[in-house]
């Protein structure tokens, strides 16, 4: 044998592939939670599985995440309700496998069952389910692979390997059993279907004086045609008996003696006179009828014509219009066949049709792809147009339309002539039968009949020319006969309704006998007198409706199916009450969310004086207003209808409006440009940039006329938002809040003081961005439009309205969970969290009436336990912790005492909150706010308190930052420039400390300099900021100081030092012209400083008496400007007096330095303000203010101006009231000190800032 030879091959290439170079089905993800999708013959499959299952299968709502279970005691299987078909099938097979393999009572090998652990059982059951589902073509791999892997103890999957035989056997048994049952079920269903076959057969003579309408059960249309074709002469004597001999069941529905009417769709018609047998479906689908439906049908349609394969047409296949015109060849109907016709959906353009029939044409389309030389005929709004498919775009061919219409007009004339002869004979027979009626019974003359027929071509063509082309023939025919005596806008849904209406009209208004002869022809030959009476009555009724302003309503569940003659067709429901109509509309409207197309669905309509029109269509889950009512003078003049329109807007809401307009010149140019670009590309050019760059020139020269849009193409229908529509008819209420789902985001918006508060979330309800749109002057819709554009979203993007409150709940829950998750990651052991929090509170807590934090927590615990006992609440208290601002010493005057309590129990947190806080517990005069929390909702104290700590830390940091910002010093200096307009030209001096120095520098600039006008400016520098952030502005320019411009520079007018510098500059330059006055800013600054002193002096009383601080400052400012400062002087003097007294106590009683005494510092501030108040020069004359003399009467200020006091705001009286109270206190204290000189002076309690 020998050893095998081995050789080395150097530099051998190793092949490898990157993942991006591979394709194929993606590997299943492990861990898919649930399957989706449907199962073919689902009901039969589940029926078969239920029959082969060893135990019953039921459906129920299972708590938790389980999708099903096998109950080993009750011996039954439960499946979760509401799952997808594939998930339900998979779960049912899984549980059936458990029942077959792991039921101790049913399995003989009990030892084998006991030896299996849970992992093995689950792996076996899921493997059986996967195998059975795969056999029947149900892919569960995404779910089953992850499930099996999850129940396997290791990567080797020993449970699966040890059970392969069991899995094969059980799966085989189930597959065999299910297939057998499915076969039996399908046989039963085929037999049932065979028995349920039904066809409608009409047996008639030529003039319809004898007919029989027969229901044939057990035969479809084709079988009925075949059997009737084979009839012998004897069989024709009794066709019903003949059909029953062939295995059918026959029932006569109606005959010539029947007086009750119904509506039936004919399948087969047999004429006993001519022995003609007609297949109604084949006749309806004949080219003539298809073409008639296209040209004269009530719905919009389109048709595709393609050239015949003839000698004449062979040379012009796929030739453009330019070629035909050069050869003098016309586009004639004779060379074309109608290949395809279908409904024209709203919004479909010719370009859409071209694309559809080149990329994804319908399965029943038998022609070649839409190409050059084809013709597309459009039937829109009752008009027909023909369009030749050119090398680029379409060319309208009116001659094609004319010839097409001419053929059918000729056919119509022939039909009318034949019909007139028939009606004449019937009329004569009718007159002979009733000679006593005289000339009341006569035939409408030929010319009148032709005129009526021409006007109502569609109805007469189908009803008379081809009476059985449409299954609804009898209904259409009758409606045509009574159209002149039917109120405008009224339509009958069934033949029975239409016939009953005519029958009642004839009986009640003319006493005309109703007999079998009248069924067929007499409706068209009613006497002139009879017809005039009926029409007069109808006209009188119409006038009565107008006088009474009669309005009624209708609702259609789905307009897209309403026109179809199918079992699924929506009915038109009528209402006399708008509230009932709106209720029905809203009920149907809620079901429209499943549709995403542009079809009009739920429809709300109105009938005004008998004229009907749609008002609201639901499209894309939005309420779209139809403007049909604007074309009706009755509607616009009806107060009842206009009030209803307002009601609809308020109650239902209108999102958009369907408007009709023509293209703008810019849109026309864009349209031509796109066609030009498309034509160049179709021509095979590789680089079209040169041509496109010259498009504007070509267009302006008029060289693009052939590419211009047609009149139809220029007409645009679009749905615009209601807020963008010029609405003269009703008011639209602006909602206070809205929420939408748009693309992959949720957007919410609500009104707020500054404008609109908005938030944008992702699909997981996580906040992406938010803020305040600070323009309250525009509508909420306009604000939303701007916000959407900022996020790259368009107003044209589909928006689905969602419940605002529900969205907020979901987003708050996600935010809360995110916070708890972050806390769980950052929080150490729970016990340490609570202990550390309480220890820090003990260190920073400000006692309340001598009570510590621990005292308060014990008091609250006792109170809560009493409430629990009182209401017999089944909860257990875990712990009570003082929280909120007081636990860190950050409270303000009036702050509540916040306490959080953790409990265990099933009671809701909100219910406990109401119970615990209903009594308004107070401790030391402070309200206690009790917040209950529990695990599984808000969380435990260990997870909750870190969030409190973070919040309080942020609050403390913000307070420190505010304090630092408040004490930031500002430096005011002056600048001098040789050129005020451009400081860089000539001399420029800055950082000048005094006004005198600035004036000296300014005067030192030689007047002969030509650089510009010298100026003196002001500069404000804030400590800690960059110099380029300084506020700088020229005050003096040339010989003028312009103060009016300061209105636009609040950074200067709000700075007292800056105003002082400007005032000094004015005083030092008396010869300079001054425009404006500093007085209003000086007064405002002084008022703000006095108000701040009032707040700092007694914060508690300030907060109790001042509701609007801005109004307070405004009122003080006005008083200062008017010289009405008496009460301010008194207030400042009182503060100085008390400050001096308390300062003496601080210095001599406590040994505090003068500068360290808070009372002394307050007195100094008051003295400075008093001096400024004295220096201020008001605009009003002093002698005009003498009547404003404030006197104290019983410690109450009274200036005699009662009317003025009534006009002042609530916050206005605070300082005056405070002054009166303070004077009374001072007087009482002075009196007590005079009567008790030996009493020691006591220091006031510390004020809170």
UniProtKB/TrEMBL annotation:
<dbReference type="InterPro" id="IPR025465">
    <property type="entry name" value="DUF4316"/>
</dbReference>
<dbReference type="InterPro" id="IPR040568">
    <property type="entry name" value="LPD16"/>
</dbReference>
<feature type="domain" description="DUF4316">
    <location>
        <begin position="1176"/>
        <end position="1214"/>
    </location>
</feature>
<dbReference type="Pfam" id="PF18830">
    <property type="entry name" value="LPD16"/>
</dbReference>
<dbReference type="InterPro" id="IPR043519">
    <property type="entry name" value="NT_sf"/>
</dbReference>
<dbReference type="Pfam" id="PF06114">
    <property type="entry name" value="Peptidase_M78"/>
</dbReference>
<feature type="region of interest" description="Disordered">
    <location>
        <begin position="1221"/>
        <end position="1249"/>
    </location>
</feature>
<protein>
    <recommendedName>
        <fullName>DUF4316 domain-containing protein</fullName>
    </recommendedName>
</protein>
<dbReference type="InterPro" id="IPR010359">
    <property type="entry name" value="IrrE_HExxH"/>
</dbReference>
<feature type="domain" description="YodL-like">
    <location>
        <begin position="302"/>
        <end position="400"/>
    </location>
</feature>
<dbReference type="InterPro" id="IPR025923">
    <property type="entry name" value="YodL-like_dom"/>
</dbReference>
<feature type="domain" description="IrrE N-terminal-like">
    <location>
        <begin position="53"/>
        <end position="131"/>
    </location>
</feature>
<dbReference type="Pfam" id="PF14191">
    <property type="entry name" value="YodL"/>
</dbReference>
<dbReference type="Pfam" id="PF14195">
    <property type="entry name" value="DUF4316"/>
</dbReference>
<keyword id="KW-0175">Coiled coil</keyword>
<feature type="coiled-coil region">
    <location>
        <begin position="168"/>
        <end position="195"/>
    </location>
</feature>
<feature type="domain" description="Large polyvalent protein-associated">
    <location>
        <begin position="734"/>
        <end position="813"/>
    </location>
</feature>
């Amino acid at each position: 044998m020998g050893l095998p030879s081995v050789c080395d091959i150097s530099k051998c290439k190793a092949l490898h592939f990157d993942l991006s170079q591979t394709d194929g089905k993606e590997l299943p993800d492990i861990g898919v939670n649930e399957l989706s999708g449907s199962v073919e013959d689902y009901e039969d499959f589940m029926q078969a599985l239920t029959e082969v299952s060893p135990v019953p299968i039921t459906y129920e709502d299972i708590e938790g995440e389980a999708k099903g279970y096998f109950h080993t005691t009750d011996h039954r299987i439960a499946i979760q309700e509401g799952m997808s078909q594939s998930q339900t099938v998979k779960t049912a097979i899984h549980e059936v496998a458990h029942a077959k393999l792991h039921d101790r009572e049913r399995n003989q090998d009990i030892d084998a069952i006991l030896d299996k652990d849970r992992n093995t059982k689950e792996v076996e059951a899921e493997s059986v389910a996967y195998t059975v589902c795969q056999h029947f073509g149900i892919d569960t791999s995404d779910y089953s692979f992850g499930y099996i892997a999850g129940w396997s103890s290791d990567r080797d999957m020993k449970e699966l390997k040890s059970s392969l035989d069991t899995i094969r056997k059980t799966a085989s048994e189930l597959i065999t059993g299910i297939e057998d049952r499915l076969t039996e079920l399908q046989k039963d269903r085929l037999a049932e279907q065979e028995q349920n076959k039904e066809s409608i057969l009409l047996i008639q003579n030529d003039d319809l004086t004898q007919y029989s309408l027969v229901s044939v059960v057990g035969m479809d249309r084709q079988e009925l045609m075949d059997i009737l074709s084979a009839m012998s002469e004897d069989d024709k004597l009794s066709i019903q008996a003949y059909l029953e001999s062939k295995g059918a069941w026959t029932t006569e529905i109606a005959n010539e003696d029947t007086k009750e009417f119904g509506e039936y769709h004919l399948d087969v018609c047999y004429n006993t006179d001519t022995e003609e047998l007609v297949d109604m479906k084949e006749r309806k689908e004949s080219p003539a009828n298809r073409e008639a439906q296209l040209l004269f049908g009530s719905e919009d349609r389109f048709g595709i014509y393609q050239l015949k394969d003839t000698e004449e047409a062979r040379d012009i296949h796929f030739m453009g219009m330019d070629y035909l015109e050069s050869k003098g060849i016309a586009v004639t109907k004779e060379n074309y066949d109608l290949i395809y016709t279908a409904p024209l959906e709203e919004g479909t353009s010719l370009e859409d049709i071209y694309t559809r029939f080149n990329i994804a044409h319908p399965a029943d389309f038998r022609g070649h792809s839409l190409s050059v030389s084809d013709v597309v005929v459009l039937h829109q709004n009752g008009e027909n147009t023909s369009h030749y498919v050119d090398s680029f775009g379409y060319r309208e061919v009116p001659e094609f339309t004319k010839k097409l219409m001419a053929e059918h007009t000729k056919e119509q004339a022939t039909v009318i002539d034949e019909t007139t002869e028939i009606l004449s004979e019937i009329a004569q027979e009718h007159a002979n039968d009733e000679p006593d009626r005289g000339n009341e019974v006569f035939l409408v003359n030929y010319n009148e009949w032709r005129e009526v027929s021409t006007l109502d071509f569609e109805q007469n063509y189908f009803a008379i020319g081809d009476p059985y082309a449409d299954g609804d023939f009898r209904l259409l025919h009758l409606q045509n006969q009574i159209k002149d005596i039917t109120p405008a806008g009224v339509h009958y849904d069934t033949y029975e309704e239409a016939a009953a209406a005519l029958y009642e009209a004839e009986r009640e208004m003319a006493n005309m006998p109703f007999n079998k002869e009248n069924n067929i022809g007499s409706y068209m030959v009613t006497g002139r007198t009879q017809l005039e009476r009926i029409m007069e009555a109808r006209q009188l009724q119409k006038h009565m409706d107008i006088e009474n302003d009669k309005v009624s309503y209708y609702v259609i569940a789905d307009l897209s199916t309403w026109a179809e003659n199918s079992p699924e067709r929506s009915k038109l429901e009528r209402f006399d009450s708008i509230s009932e109509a709106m209720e029905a509309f809203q009920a149907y409207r809620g079901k429209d969310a499943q549709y995403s197309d542009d079809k009009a669905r739920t429809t709300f309509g109105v009938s005004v004086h008998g004229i009907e029109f749609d008002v609201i269509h639901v499209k894309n889950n939005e309420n779209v207003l139809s403007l049909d009512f604007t074309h009706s003078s009755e509607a616009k003049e009806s107060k009842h209808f206009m009030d209803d329109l307002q009601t609809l807007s308020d109650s239902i809401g209108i999102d958009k409006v369907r408007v009709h307009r023509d293209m703008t010149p810019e849109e026309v140019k864009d349209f031509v440009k796109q066609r030009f670009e498309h034509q160049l590309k179709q021509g095979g050019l590789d680089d079209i940039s040169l041509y496109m760059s010259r498009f504007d020139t070509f267009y302006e020269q008029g060289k693009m006329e052939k590419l211009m849009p047609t009149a139809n193409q220029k007409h645009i229908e679009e749905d615009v938002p209601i807020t963008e529509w010029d609405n003269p008819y009703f008011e639209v209420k602006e909602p206070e809040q809205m929420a939408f789902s748009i693309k992959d985001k949720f957007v919410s918006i609500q009104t707020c003081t500054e404008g609109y508060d908005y938030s944008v979330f992702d699909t997981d309800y996580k906040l992406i961005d938010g803020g305040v749109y600070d323009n309250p002057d525009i509508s909420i819709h306009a604000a939303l439009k701007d916000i959407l554009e900022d996020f790259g979203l368009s107003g044209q993007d589909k928006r689905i309205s969602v419940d605002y409150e529900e969205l907020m709940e979901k987003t708050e829950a996600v935010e809360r969970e995110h916070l708890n998750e972050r806390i769980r990651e950052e929080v150490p052991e729970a016990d340490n969290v609570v202990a550390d929090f309480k220890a820090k509170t003990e260190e920073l807590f400000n006692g309340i009436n001598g009570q510590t934090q621990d005292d308060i927590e014990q008091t609250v615990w006792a109170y809560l336990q009493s409430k629990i006992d009182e209401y017999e609440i089944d909860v257990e208290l875990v712990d009570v912790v003082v929280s909120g601002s007081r636990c860190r010493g950050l409270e303000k005057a009036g702050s509540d005492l916040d306490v959080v309590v953790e409990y265990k129990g099933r009671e809701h947190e909100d219910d406990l909150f109401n119970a615990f806080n209903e009594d308004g517990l107070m401790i030391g005069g402070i309200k206690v706010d009790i917040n209950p929390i529990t695990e599984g909702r808000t969380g435990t104290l260990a997870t909750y308190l870190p969030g409190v700590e973070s919040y309080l830390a942020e609050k403390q940091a913000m307070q420190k930052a505010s304090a630092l910002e408040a004490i930031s010093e500002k430096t005011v200096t002056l600048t001098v420039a040789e050129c005020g307009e451009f400081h860089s030209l000539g001399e420029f001096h800055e950082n000048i400390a005094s006004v005198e120095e600035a004036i000296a520098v300014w005067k030192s600039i030689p007047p002969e300099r030509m650089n510009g006008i010298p100026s003196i400016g002001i500069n404000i520098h804030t400590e800690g900021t960059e110099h380029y952030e300084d506020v700088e502005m020229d005050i003096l320019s040339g010989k003028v100081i312009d103060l009016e411009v300061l209105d636009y520079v609040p950074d200067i007018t709000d700075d007292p030092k800056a105003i002082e510098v400007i005032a000094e500059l004015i005083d030092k330059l008396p010869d300079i012209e001054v425009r404006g006055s500093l007085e209003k800013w000086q007064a405002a600054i002084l008022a703000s400083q006095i108000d701040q002193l009032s707040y700092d002096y007694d914060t508690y009383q300030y907060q109790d008496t001042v509701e609007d601080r801005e109004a307070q400052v405004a009122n003080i400012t006005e008083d200062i400007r008017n010289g009405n400062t008496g009460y301010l002087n008194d207030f400042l003097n009182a503060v100085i007096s008390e400050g001096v007294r308390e300062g003496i106590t601080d210095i001599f009683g406590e040994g505090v330095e003068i500068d360290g005494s808070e009372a002394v510092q307050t007195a100094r501030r008051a003295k400075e303000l008093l001096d400024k108040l004295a220096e201020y020069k008001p605009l009003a004359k002093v002698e005009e203010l003498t009547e404003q003399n404030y006197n104290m009467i019983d410690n109450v200020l009274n200036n005699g101006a009662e009317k003025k006091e009534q006009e002042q705001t609530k916050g206005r009286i605070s300082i005056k009231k405070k002054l009166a109270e303070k004077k009374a206190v001072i007087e009482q204290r002075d009196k007590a000190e005079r009567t008790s000189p030996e009493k020691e002076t006591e220091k006031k309690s510390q004020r809170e800032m």
